[in-house]
Write a structure and sequence with these properties.
about 150 residues; four-stranded antiparallel β-sheet; 4 strands
Length: about 150
């Protein structure tokens, strides 16, 4: 009988940053079953952020493997990102980009095709004050307040 379907598989994961005397993540292994509630806990410097960076394809591992819904994060990063949703605690927009360019950047990161990226920010956004804000710096966006 097969075990539970895995949402996340991490096996012998290692990440060492250049010029660092120690591994940021050192031989980490764990599985998360589909539907399971999972918390990644540890003290500052334990490698939590780096591990999430690997799982979201923002950080390349030094060795080991990481899979999200069966997809290898190194071999298939675009498909992995298409299966993820990350909700940051704080606004994480690039302050040097306009609001529109931030939306286009994040769409590209998640594998949205170029033609759709160009038109999507204007569709269905009339209630957001989009036309007035599209060229505004991203600092005009307030935490917890996507609408006017």
């Amino acid at each position: 009988m097969a075990g539970p379907e895995l949402a996340v598989e991490v096996s012998e994961l290692v990440k060492r940053y250049p010029r660092s005397p120690a591994n940021a993540v050192d031989d980490l292994s764990f599985n998360v079953a589909r539907g399971e509630i999972f918390g990644l806990l540890g003290p500052n410097g334990a490698g939590k952020t780096t591990t999430i960076g690997v799982l979201t394809t923002r950080v390349l591992p030094t060795s080991g493997t990481a899979r999200v819904t069966g997809l290898d994060v190194v071999a298939d990063p675009v498909r992995v990102r298409s299966r993820l949703a990350v909700v940051p605690q704080r606004v994480n927009l690039d302050r040097s980009l306009t609001t529109r360019n931030n939306l286009v950047f994040h769409a590209a990161y998640h594998g949205v095709l170029r033609a759709e990226r160009r038109s999507a920010p204007t569709r269905g956004s009339s209630g957001w004050g989009w036309r007035r804000r599209r060229a505004s710096p991203s600092t005009a966006c307030r935490e917890g307040s996507p609408s006017d």
